[in-house]
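Please, structure for the following, as C-alpha cells.
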Amino acid sequence: MQLPPSDRHALEEQVKAAWVVKRENTGSGFFTDLNLEDRQMDPISSDVASYWVNSRIEDVDDAIGFILWLDEAGYMRMLEGYSQALTNSESLDWTAVPFEITFPVAADKQS
C-alpha cells in the first residue's frame, strides 16, 4: 500500500523544506532530528508508522529499516534508521553511507 497522492505530495514538500537539527549515531542505527520552519504546507494525514521501509547497503539486503516520525500536526520531526543486518553501526558515517530503498511495505501486510 502506497501513500495516497495528497500525502505523497505533502511528504515531498516537507522533505524539500526540512533541515537537519541534530544527528545521533546510536551504534545500532541513527536518529536525525528535523525542523520545518514553514508550516504553510499540507500536513501528512496517513499513519506513516504503519509503513516499513527497508534498504540495502552494498550487498547487504534489509540492512537498515527506517521510521519517519511525525508530530501531532502531521509534520516530520525525526527520521530513525535502525540496523537490521549489522551488528554495530558506530563506525558508520550515516551521512555518507550509500543505500538503496528496497521495498516499502505497509505493516499490516507483514507476516
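Strands lie at 19-25, 29-35, 51-57, 60-70, 76-83, 100-106. The longest strand covers residues 60-70.
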